Description:
By secondary structure, this protein is an alpha/beta fold. It folds into 2 domains: about 20-170, 3 Solenoid (UDP N-Acetylglucosamine Acyltransferase, domain 1), CATH 2.160.10; about 170-210, no CATH class. About 10% of the residues lie in helices and about 20% in strands. The protein contains 4 helices and 15 strands. The chain has helices spanning about 170-180, 190-195, 195-200, 205; strands at about 20, 30, 35-40, 50, 60-65, 70, 75, 115-120, 125, 130, 135, 140, 145-150, 155-160, 165-170. A hairpin with a 4-residue loop joins β14 and β15.
Amino acid sequence: xxxxxxxxxxxxxxxxxxxxxxxxxxxxxxxxxxxxxxxxxxxxxxxxxxxxxxxxxxxxxxxxxxxxxxxxxxxxxxxxxxxxxxxxxxxxxxxxxxxxxxxxxxxxxxxxxxxxxxxxxxxxxxxxxxxxxxxxxxxxxxxxxxxxxxxxxxxxxxxxxxxxxxxxxxxxxxxxxxxxxxxxxxxxxxxxxxxxxxxxxxxxxxxxxx
Length: 210
């Protein structure tokens, strides 16, 4: 076969720290695209431990696109981490039951940011942290230890705490063209045939592959 199968758990022989995590996820509210990998020498198959406060009764989803590279220690804080903030105390008395249960606020009192969505061909660096509901666009790069608190535009590099824009990877016209090409949606045979154009930097050559 001229390309690896996305059904492999560990695509690099003798190197189990790289895992195509689509094949190891059990939680139906975590959706991982083909060929997205997590790199962790301790336990690359157990990526779900990095998705924090992801309670099924909240119902939010973590969606990660295809061909994403996730560095060791990448973490996602989900909406279940939020506490209500309308009153004087943020302490969740109600979860401990007994007489405290009667003081449970209505569900809408808890902040809810929606699904966390990572686009295709995104690189999340070592120990990057994404907060609930952020949207990271296709082709973006998140620096090591960055804390992503708001949406990241496609093909944009961000870093820091909170993460701020370092620069766009390409000019706006090139970004628009790359989003239109959407090579990640091609079948794997076509991707393999034109891989030199995908990893290259000649936009006209890539456009000619369509």
